[in-house]
Design brief:
The complex is a heterodimer of chains A (531) and B (144). Chain A is of the alpha/beta class and 531 residues long. Chain A folds into 2 domains: 230 residues, Methylmalonyl-CoA mutase (TIM Barrel, Alpha-Beta Barrel), CATH 3.20.20; 234 residues, Methylmalonyl-CoA mutase (TIM Barrel, Alpha-Beta Barrel), CATH 3.20.20.240. In chain A, 48% of the residues lie in helices and 8% in strands. Chain A contains 20 helices and 12 strands. Chain A starts with 8 loop residues before the first strand and ends in an 8-residue tail after the last helix. The model of chain A has no long low-confidence stretch (mean pLDDT 95). Chain B has a 5-stranded parallel beta sheet with strand order 2-1-3-4-5, sandwiched between helices. In chain B, helix 4 links the parallel strand 4 and strand 5. Classes of the chains: A alpha/beta (531), B alpha/beta (144). At the A-B interface, helix 2 and helix 16 of A face helix 1, strand 2 and helix 3 of B.
């Protein structure tokens, strides 16, 4: 590919790069592809951002629900067009804030929630029938309860289920391979809950995306762009097969599956990744699954810029990093975007960092002009070439995962963990050996650092959440709550969809930790094959 | 090349509920490559961490957290090490730890803090220094 006198170069994920793109690097179909038509390489809509800009969805969550609600409202007032809510670790893992293991993590990395009253506070004064809400309930064990609490909080305000629009992340790999944590469910059990939530939403919540198949977090944990894409695709395929097995027509749910990808630093590789993912998914849905319904073939995705690429030293340089990453997402045709705060490597974002990130999105939209034409890099020799090579490489890994029986067995046997560990170790070695230069880490790291202000969390979160839990436990009908929780466990064991039972338990003011505990008892626990 | 870690034992653990494992596994791999025997506990309570240090007779305890829970969890581990009389183990902490928090951690007995972006070879050199020094101190105490 490259001329003999030029030394070979490759992308971050090892795709060979020509010294310059040439017309014969472009595949035969590229010239006839159009945005909005199969295979959607160039975007899922013909008009793309002319018709509707991407949703500006800045992730936020810390302290108590009231603290985070204030941040959501500040972001919306400043021009955010969607809510993106992340929960603290105990809440993601479905433990109560007053659990002994939880105490130091309450309100950290996300907002603390325990009971449905917390969801009243979290979304107070936010018009849930107008603003879409992404619940970054990454792990199914927490996601099932969060969604029931969210729905009931909305209903208490008179907003019906049919009006609610948004997304649950709801990803079994997050629970079993990405976010190691005490007392995780086994892959099969976590996947069962994930599919329960999806099944519930496709019948009960017509505007809800019940899963956000996450490539982002695999990438952050060490995957390269190829593995990120392959895990994403095989995971979506596993969900599709399971929902079909449960008796649902693909046309009824495929258009409700959404995806979540990383925008990492290798600019053209990332753009090629977004384009290739759209094409690979559309081909699989049409050609392998035999679904002609076009909305089912559209790979709709959210992007977050790469947190792991951000540095603690010279942290303001992260603004430049995240901006170019965000640009790749827009050039790659994302539906929704979060740009990281420049203090990502130091603390959760301060309001200043979050607003700077949001305003950066508006620089992309209003100042750069890149949103005016769909797929502006379509036809680029290099980008078309990388898109083709990326798709091929991804399909090779998809075939490897399929040979293990799919992504659930591949997780069970530890293959996913081993690949992530291997690739993250290699990436670190490349930095240590200075094959990969990172500004502020192994190059350009001299000179005085200008430290960023550390965002300090509220200090009263644990005490106040504990008080709320005590208050709720004392006012509710203990017997009714306990038996409703018991029914959740029975449903899980019987492999009957748990969601109706979860809804009833939440109506009885069951706590998140009680629901988590009964699901852990019923579905069992799992040791990570991580080391 | 780091040679002084060969044959020594390390216990490694995640603190509290923090979920990020990339960094801790990279360090665990690097220590193993440097010849250490590595016991990875995953998430563990302060009591379990301290008892593992005793049971394994570890010279190094590596703690990891990126959630910001270090000022809550680290002191509990240090206290528990003192309770079981294992506070001569070299304790290092890695993760998202603001520089402003380091003095408090060091005053409590944490030997070194490695924030995100630390160079692995540099960190191994420092750990080697600490381990070799502690090993000498243990030998000296043992021969008295």
């Amino acid at each position: 590919m490259s001329s003999p006198e030029v030394s070979p170069e490759s992308t971050a994920s090892g795709l060979e790069l020509p010294a310059y793109g040439r017309p014969d690097d472009v595949g035969p179909t590229a010239a006839s592809e159009r945005p909005g038509s199969f295979p959607f390489t160039r975007g899922i809509h013909e008009g793309m951002y002319r018709n509707r800009p991407w949703t500006m969805r800045q992730l936020a969550g810390f302290g108590r629900a009231t603290d985070t609600n204030a941040r959501y409202r500040a972001l919306l007032a400043a021009g955010a067009t969607g809510v993106n809510g992340v929960f603290d670790y105990p809440s993601l893992r479905a433990f109560d804030s007053d659990h002994p293991l939880a105490r130091s993590d309450v309100g950290r990395g996300g907002v603390a929630v325990d009971v449905r009253d917390d969801f009243d506070d979290l979304f107070a004064e936010i018009p849930l029938d107008k603003v879409s809400v992404s619940l970054v309930s990454s792990q199914p064990i927490g996601a099932v309860a969060h969604l029931a609490m969210f729905v009931q909080a909305a209903q208490r305000r008179g907003i019906p289920k049919a009006a609610l629009s948004g997304t649950s992340q709801n990803d079994f790999l997050m629970e079993t391979a990405i976010t190691i944590a005490p007392q995780a469910l086994p892959p099969v059990g976590s996947f069962q809950l994930e599919c329960d939530l999806i099944e519930y939403a496709i019948t009960e919540l017509p505007r809800w995306n019940p899963v956000s198949i996450s490539g982002y977090n695999y990438r952050e944990a060490g995957a390269d762009a190829v593995l990120e894409s392959a895990l994403t695709l095989t995971h979506a395929q596993a969900v599709t097969h399971e929902l079909i097995r449960r008796g649902h027509a693909p046309e009824a749910f495929l258009s409700r599956i959404s995806f979540f990808l990383n925008a990492h630093s290798d600019f053209f590789e990332e753009i090629a990744k977004f384009r290739a993912a759209r094409r690979a998914w559309a081909k699989w849905v049409r050609d392998d699954l035999g679904v002609a319904h076009e909305p089912s073939q559209r790979f709709r995705f959210h992007v977050q810029t790469s947190g792991v690429s951000n540095t603690a030293r010279h942290a303001h340089v992260n603004i430049a990093r995240s901006m170019t990453q965000g640009l790749s997402a827009v050039l790659g045709g994302t539906q929704s975007l979060h740009i990281n705060g420049f203090d990502e490597a130091v603390s959760i974002p301060s309001e200043h960092a979050a607003m700077t990130a949001l305003r950066s999105q508006y620089v992309l939209l209003h100042e750069t002009g890149v949103a005016k034409s769909a797929d502006p890099l379509g036809g680029s020799y290099l980008v078309e070439h990388l898109t083709d090579v990326m798709e091929e490489r991804v399909q090779d890994v998809v075939a490897q995962i399929d040979a293990m029986g799919g992504v659930v067995p591949a997780t069970e046997r530890g293959w996913v963990h081993a690949e992530l560990s291997r690739l993250s170790f290699e990436a670190q070695k490349a930095i240590d050996d200075e094959e990969q230069l990172i500004v502020g880490v192994n190059t350009m790291n001299d000179g005085a650092d200008v430290p960023v202000e550390i965002f300090r969390l509220p200090t009263d979160t644990l005490a106040k959440q504990s008080a709320r839990l005590a208050e709720v436990r004392s006012r509710r009908d203990t017997q009714a709550a306990a038996s409703a929780v018991e029914e959740v466990g029975q449903a899980a064991v019987a492999k009957v969809n748990v969601m109706p039972a979860v809804e009833r338990a939440v109506e009885q003011d069951a706590t998140l930790g009680e629901l988590g505990a009964v699901l852990r008892t019923s579905l069992g626990l799992w040791d990570f094959p991580l080391w | 090349m780091v040679n002084g870690l060969r044959g020594h034992k390390a216990v490694i653990a995640k603190l509290g509920f923090d979920a990020h494992w990339r960094g801790v596994i990279i360090i665990a791999n690097a220590l193993r490559d440097a010849g250490m025997e590595v016991v990875y506990l995953g998430h563990a309570s302060a009591e379990d961490i301290a008892s593992a240090v005793v049971q394994e007779d570890a010279i190094l305890l590596g703690l990891s957290t990126l959630s910001g829970n270090h000022l809550g969890e680290c002191p509990s581990v240090m206290e528990q090490l003192r309770v079981v009389g294992a506070d001569d183990v070299v304790v290092v902490l890695g993760g998202t730890v603001p520089a402003a928090d380091v003095p408090e951690l060091e005053a409590d007995g944490v030997a070194a803090v490695f924030p995100t972006g630390s160079s692995v070879p540099d960190l191994l050199v420092l750990i080697e220094e600490l381990v070799v020094e502690q090993d000498a101190a243990r030998r000296k105490a043992g021969s008295l």
